[in-house]
Amino acid sequence: MNNLKHLLTRPLRAVPNSLVIFVLIIALIGFADSTYLVIEHYQGVIPPCSIIGGCELVLTSVYASIIGIPVSLLGAIYYFIILVGSFAYLDTKKTEILKWTMLFTVFGILASPWFVFLQVFIIKSYCVYCLGSVITSTILFVMACVIFKRYSDEEIIL
Questions:
Q1: Within a domain: residue 158?
Q2: Residue 2 pLDDT > 80, yes or no?
Q3: Most buried of 11, 47, 134, 154, CB within 10 angstroms?
Q4: Looking at the whole model, is its pTM more than 0.70?
Q5: Residue in 19, 26, 46, 59 with CA at minimum distance from that of residue 133
Q6: What gap in Å lies between CA 8 and CA 1, rounded to an integer?
Q7: pLDDT at 107
Q8: d(Cα 18, Cα 25) in Å, to the nearest integer?
């Protein structure tokens, strides 16, 4: 809890554009993946799953939506927020924007293990698109840790 308080109160130093552009690219990949699934969902189409079978079981399971909202739509919103925050930082260089954008990656890293658990132990089938989202969410969280570790004004113990 002290680390979170520390992150919220300590400013970041300027972060190189290259790191933020990397975050932006990963978020764009996650956004494209999630948006594709949203479009397919509302068209009533199950995307092809050529690498590993099982997308249809995962994407039509009761776990594919929360109170009628497709999980992929929540994912698209998550990635969109990170995209907007990254663009805003690149445009303004306001580190406060980047700090809150990177803190937002916690939602993705918290949701990912749950969705992997569902696929492995409950649904017993895998969705390559969903696993792609797990990978992009994990990379975004790792990048947030790197940014906070290297560019915080004080040492943070992760």
A1: no
A2: no
A3: 134
A4: yes
A5: 26
A6: 11
A7: 97
A8: 10
Could you please report the per-residue DSSP string of 64-115? GEETTEEHHHHHHHHHHHHHHHHHHHHHH--HHHHHHHHHTHHHHHHHHHHH
Number of H helices and number of E strands within the chain?
A: 7, 2
Q: How many domains does the chain have?
A: 1
- Residue type, position 144, single letter: A
Within a domain: residue 15?
no
Alpha-carbon distances, residue 9 vs 82, 133, 140 (angstroms): 21, 30, 21
Q: What is the pLDDT of residues 94-115, one digit of tens each?
A: 999 999 999 999 999 999 999 9
CA distances from 157 to 3, 104, 140, 145, 153 (A): 7, 19, 19, 10, 13
For the record, the structure tokens of 148 come out as 């906070």
* Residue whose structure tokens are 């929540």: 74
pLDDT tens readout for residues 19-76: 999 999 999 999 999 999 999 999 999 898 877 778 899 999 999 999 999 999 999 9
The CATH number linked to 79 is 1.20.1440.130
Contact between residue 108 and residue 141 where contact means Cβ atoms under 8 Å apart: yes
